[in-house]
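__Record contents__

***
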Amino acid sequence: MKAGVITFPGSNCDHDITYILSTFFSVQTDLLWHKNSIQEKYDLLVVPGGFSYGDYLRCGAIARFAPAMKSLVDHAKEGRPVIGICNGFQILCESGLLPGALIRNESLKHICKNVSLKPVSGNAFTSGLSEQRTYEIPVSHGEGNFRIDDQGLQELKENNQIAFRYEVNPNGSIDHIAGITDKKHRILGMMPHPERATDPVNGSVDGKLILEAMLGVV
Protein backbone atom coordinates (compact mmCIF):
# COMPACT_ATOMS: atom_id res chain seq x y z
CA MET A 1 0.00 0.00 0.00
CA LYS A 2 1.21 3.50 -0.80
CA ALA A 3 -0.16 6.72 0.70
CA GLY A 4 0.37 10.40 0.02
CA VAL A 5 -0.10 13.17 2.61
CA ILE A 6 -0.75 16.67 1.27
CA THR A 7 1.09 19.43 3.14
CA PHE A 8 -0.07 23.05 3.26
CA PRO A 9 1.64 26.04 4.91
CA GLY A 10 0.55 25.62 8.52
CA SER A 11 -0.14 21.87 8.40
CA ASN A 12 1.08 20.55 11.75
CA CYS A 13 -0.16 16.96 11.68
CA ASP A 14 1.30 15.95 8.33
CA HIS A 15 4.42 14.43 9.88
CA ASP A 16 2.29 12.83 12.61
CA ILE A 17 0.10 10.86 10.21
CA THR A 18 3.11 10.06 8.00
CA TYR A 19 4.98 8.62 10.98
CA ILE A 20 1.97 6.64 12.18
CA LEU A 21 1.16 5.15 8.77
CA SER A 22 4.75 4.18 8.04
CA THR A 23 5.75 3.01 11.53
CA PHE A 24 2.61 1.32 12.86
CA PHE A 25 1.04 0.13 9.60
CA SER A 26 4.09 -0.32 7.33
CA VAL A 27 2.49 1.90 4.68
CA GLN A 28 4.92 3.58 2.30
CA THR A 29 4.00 7.24 2.80
CA ASP A 30 5.10 10.38 0.93
CA LEU A 31 4.67 14.03 1.85
CA LEU A 32 3.19 15.97 -1.08
CA TRP A 33 3.56 19.76 -1.34
CA HIS A 34 0.26 21.55 -2.02
CA LYS A 35 1.64 23.62 -4.92
CA ASN A 36 2.52 20.56 -6.99
CA SER A 37 0.16 18.39 -8.99
CA ILE A 38 0.25 14.76 -7.91
CA GLN A 39 1.73 12.77 -10.76
CA GLU A 40 2.08 9.41 -9.03
CA LYS A 41 -0.78 7.00 -8.36
CA TYR A 42 -1.47 6.42 -4.67
CA ASP A 43 -3.70 3.87 -2.99
CA LEU A 44 -4.70 6.50 -0.41
CA LEU A 45 -4.47 10.27 -0.15
CA VAL A 46 -4.65 12.03 3.22
CA VAL A 47 -5.41 15.69 3.92
CA PRO A 48 -3.97 16.18 7.42
CA GLY A 49 -4.87 18.38 10.35
CA GLY A 50 -3.42 21.72 11.30
CA PHE A 51 -3.99 24.84 9.24
CA SER A 52 -3.96 25.78 5.56
CA TYR A 53 -3.29 29.15 3.98
CA GLY A 54 -6.38 31.31 3.68
CA ASP A 55 -8.04 29.95 6.83
CA TYR A 56 -8.56 33.57 7.93
CA LEU A 57 -11.22 33.75 5.19
CA ARG A 58 -12.81 30.39 5.99
CA CYS A 59 -11.10 27.14 6.85
CA GLY A 60 -10.12 25.37 3.63
CA ALA A 61 -11.73 27.99 1.37
CA ILE A 62 -8.48 28.85 -0.41
CA ALA A 63 -6.68 25.53 0.05
CA ARG A 64 -9.31 23.79 -2.06
CA PHE A 65 -7.84 25.48 -5.16
CA ALA A 66 -4.32 24.08 -4.66
CA PRO A 67 -2.90 22.04 -7.57
CA ALA A 68 -2.52 19.03 -5.27
CA MET A 69 -6.22 19.24 -4.38
CA LYS A 70 -7.18 19.25 -8.05
CA SER A 71 -5.19 16.02 -8.38
CA LEU A 72 -6.93 14.67 -5.27
CA VAL A 73 -10.32 15.30 -6.91
CA ASP A 74 -9.20 13.23 -9.91
CA HIS A 75 -7.93 10.54 -7.52
CA ALA A 76 -11.35 10.47 -5.83
CA LYS A 77 -13.21 10.29 -9.15
CA GLU A 78 -11.30 7.08 -9.86
CA GLY A 79 -12.75 5.61 -6.65
CA ARG A 80 -9.48 5.76 -4.73
CA PRO A 81 -9.86 6.40 -0.97
CA VAL A 82 -9.35 9.80 0.66
CA ILE A 83 -9.14 10.64 4.37
CA GLY A 84 -9.34 14.18 5.73
CA ILE A 85 -8.61 14.82 9.41
CA CYS A 86 -9.57 18.07 11.17
CA ASN A 87 -8.46 20.82 8.75
CA GLY A 88 -8.49 18.09 6.12
CA PHE A 89 -12.20 17.53 6.81
CA GLN A 90 -12.80 21.26 6.37
CA ILE A 91 -10.93 21.28 3.05
CA LEU A 92 -12.87 18.26 1.75
CA CYS A 93 -16.17 20.01 2.55
CA GLU A 94 -14.98 23.21 0.86
CA SER A 95 -13.95 21.15 -2.18
CA GLY A 96 -17.44 19.71 -2.49
CA LEU A 97 -16.17 16.18 -1.97
CA LEU A 98 -18.17 15.95 1.25
CA PRO A 99 -21.48 17.65 2.06
CA GLY A 100 -22.05 20.21 4.79
CA ALA A 101 -19.72 22.75 6.37
CA LEU A 102 -17.65 23.27 9.52
CA ILE A 103 -18.21 26.51 11.45
CA ARG A 104 -17.06 28.01 14.75
CA ASN A 105 -17.47 25.87 17.83
CA GLU A 106 -20.64 26.66 19.74
CA SER A 107 -18.52 27.93 22.66
CA LEU A 108 -16.51 30.17 20.28
CA LYS A 109 -13.41 28.71 21.95
CA HIS A 110 -10.70 26.38 20.69
CA ILE A 111 -11.23 22.87 22.06
CA CYS A 112 -8.26 20.61 22.81
CA LYS A 113 -9.13 17.49 24.80
CA ASN A 114 -9.94 13.81 24.56
CA VAL A 115 -13.44 12.91 23.43
CA SER A 116 -15.41 9.67 23.32
CA LEU A 117 -16.39 8.54 19.81
CA LYS A 118 -19.06 6.03 18.87
CA PRO A 119 -18.72 4.37 15.44
CA VAL A 120 -21.87 4.08 13.34
CA SER A 121 -22.61 0.69 11.80
CA GLY A 122 -23.20 0.34 8.09
CA ASN A 123 -20.32 2.63 7.11
CA ALA A 124 -17.36 1.04 5.32
CA PHE A 125 -14.83 3.08 7.30
CA THR A 126 -16.10 1.75 10.65
CA SER A 127 -16.32 -1.91 9.70
CA GLY A 128 -14.76 -3.98 12.47
CA LEU A 129 -15.26 -1.35 15.17
CA SER A 130 -17.56 -2.20 18.05
CA GLU A 131 -20.70 -0.16 18.59
CA GLN A 132 -20.80 -1.48 22.13
CA ARG A 133 -17.91 0.70 23.27
CA THR A 134 -16.50 4.21 22.83
CA TYR A 135 -13.09 5.17 21.47
CA GLU A 136 -11.07 7.85 23.26
CA ILE A 137 -9.12 10.13 20.92
CA PRO A 138 -8.24 13.86 20.95
CA VAL A 139 -9.82 16.82 19.22
CA SER A 140 -8.07 20.14 18.64
CA HIS A 141 -10.08 22.69 16.70
CA GLY A 142 -11.82 26.04 16.75
CA GLU A 143 -14.15 25.36 13.84
CA GLY A 144 -15.40 21.81 14.20
CA ASN A 145 -19.13 22.49 14.44
CA PHE A 146 -20.55 20.41 11.57
CA ARG A 147 -23.66 21.87 9.97
CA ILE A 148 -25.97 20.63 7.23
CA ASP A 149 -29.61 21.30 6.34
CA ASP A 150 -32.44 18.93 7.25
CA GLN A 151 -32.55 17.31 3.81
CA GLY A 152 -28.80 16.82 3.81
CA LEU A 153 -28.89 15.26 7.26
CA GLN A 154 -31.63 12.88 6.16
CA GLU A 155 -29.54 11.84 3.16
CA LEU A 156 -26.52 11.22 5.37
CA LYS A 157 -28.61 8.87 7.49
CA GLU A 158 -30.28 7.11 4.56
CA ASN A 159 -26.93 6.46 2.86
CA ASN A 160 -25.11 5.43 6.06
CA GLN A 161 -22.70 8.32 5.55
CA ILE A 162 -22.33 9.15 9.23
CA ALA A 163 -19.19 7.33 10.38
CA PHE A 164 -18.67 8.68 13.91
CA ARG A 165 -20.69 10.52 16.54
CA TYR A 166 -19.53 12.16 19.77
CA GLU A 167 -20.87 10.55 22.91
CA VAL A 168 -20.84 14.03 24.47
CA ASN A 169 -20.98 16.82 21.89
CA PRO A 170 -17.96 19.15 22.36
CA ASN A 171 -18.62 21.71 19.63
CA GLY A 172 -22.34 21.87 18.80
CA SER A 173 -22.23 19.66 15.69
CA ILE A 174 -25.67 18.69 14.42
CA ASP A 175 -26.70 15.17 15.45
CA HIS A 176 -23.40 14.86 17.42
CA ILE A 177 -21.59 14.20 14.11
CA ALA A 178 -17.81 13.75 14.35
CA GLY A 179 -17.13 12.22 10.93
CA ILE A 180 -18.89 11.53 7.63
CA THR A 181 -18.24 9.92 4.27
CA ASP A 182 -19.38 10.45 0.71
CA LYS A 183 -22.25 8.35 -0.65
CA LYS A 184 -19.88 5.70 -2.02
CA HIS A 185 -17.98 5.41 1.27
CA ARG A 186 -14.64 6.15 -0.36
CA ILE A 187 -13.99 9.60 1.15
CA LEU A 188 -13.93 10.17 4.91
CA GLY A 189 -13.71 13.40 6.85
CA MET A 190 -13.48 13.56 10.64
CA MET A 191 -12.57 16.23 13.20
CA PRO A 192 -10.92 14.04 15.91
CA HIS A 193 -7.30 12.93 15.48
CA PRO A 194 -6.84 9.13 15.52
CA GLU A 195 -3.14 9.57 14.67
CA ARG A 196 -2.66 11.23 18.07
CA ALA A 197 -3.95 8.15 19.90
CA THR A 198 -2.00 5.38 18.17
CA ASP A 199 1.42 5.39 19.84
CA PRO A 200 1.17 4.14 23.48
CA VAL A 201 3.47 7.01 24.50
CA ASN A 202 0.49 9.32 23.99
CA GLY A 203 -1.60 7.48 26.55
CA SER A 204 -4.21 5.87 24.27
CA VAL A 205 -4.18 3.42 21.38
CA ASP A 206 -7.87 3.67 20.44
CA GLY A 207 -6.85 5.66 17.38
CA LYS A 208 -4.91 2.67 16.09
CA LEU A 209 -8.13 0.63 16.01
CA ILE A 210 -9.88 3.43 14.13
CA LEU A 211 -7.06 3.76 11.58
CA GLU A 212 -7.03 -0.03 11.08
CA ALA A 213 -10.72 0.14 10.21
CA MET A 214 -10.12 3.07 7.85
CA LEU A 215 -7.29 1.34 6.04
CA GLY A 216 -9.58 -1.62 5.49
CA VAL A 217 -11.25 0.27 2.63
CA VAL A 218 -7.99 0.67 0.70
About this structure: Residues 14-24 form the longest helix (11 residues). Residues 61 and 180 are 19 Å apart (CA to CA). The longest strand covers residues 111-119. The chain is about 20% helix and 25% strand.
